[in-house]
Amino acid sequence: GESVGLHLPTLSVQEGDNSIINCAYSNSASDYFIWYKQESGKGPQFIIDIRSNMDKRQGQRVTVLLNKTVKHLSLQIAATQPGDSAVYFCAEKNSGYSTLTFGKGTMLLVSP
Amino acid sequence: GAVVSQHPSRVICKSGTSVKIECRSLDFQATTMFWYRQFPKQSLMLMATSNEGSKATYEQGVEKDKFLINHASLTLSTLTVTSAHPEDSSFYICSARVGGKDTQYFGPGTRLTVL
Q1: Residue B111 neighbours by CB distance under 10 Å
Q2: Nearest chain B residue to A9, by CA
């Protein structure tokens, strides 16, 4: 079946670097995408979302890019901090449905 | 805004007993709530979708008689794990969304350990 997946299971960066976390999706009918951050033992925390009629959206230190041609989603974190260390999940929603399908997750490790 | 709570945060129970987990939306009314299960180092797996005042919709492979879901109000959904067994030990997370919106806001999760 169609699913959302991630290219890199673990990403290690130095504090202050910019981080890019990638996500590939296969469902062309998806119309909404969202990134979550999950720290150990906690629930996922909303970071940023984007609709399929956009290709870029910016938040505070974060940017989400959507490339529908190649079905690719990315999360960019500027000036990465140790507090950004967590697992990051992308999720997609199929048009007409309310449920989210989650990717496998990427562990981001930020060294001071 | 968009705060979701869960109770309890941790529970340990004996095999064969039932455990109830509560999910509350604290500052908004949630027409739809979702229940997920997460194993260590894995992604979130949707168990069921719960709409206020109606029966829950369960994902394929999830036993509805084992995982009872009740969504009696716009701010509260409960998940009851009946006759729990060690293989039911997991991290259970709920989420909630406002009607008409796509964003789901998650609770802090409940760690269930069945001895």
Answers
A1: 14
A2: B41
Distance from CA of B64 to the nearest CA of A (A): 18
- List, for residues A24-80, the tens digit of each pLDDT value: 998 999 999 999 999 999 999 999 999 999 999 999 999 999 999 999 999 999 999
Least confident of A50-64, A75-89, B97-111: B97-111
Q: Which of B32, B97, B106 sits opposite A43 (nearest CB)?
A: B106
Pick from A88, A40, A83, A99: nearest CA to B111: A40
Residue B2 and residue B95: Cα distance in Å, rounded? 10
Q: Which of B43, B50, B93, B94 to mutate to test the interface with A (most CBs of A within 10 A)?
A: B43
Nearest to A93 among B4, B32, B102 (CB): B102
What count of other Cβ atoms lies within 10 Å of the Cβ of residue A87?
20
Strands A100-102 and A72-77: unpaired
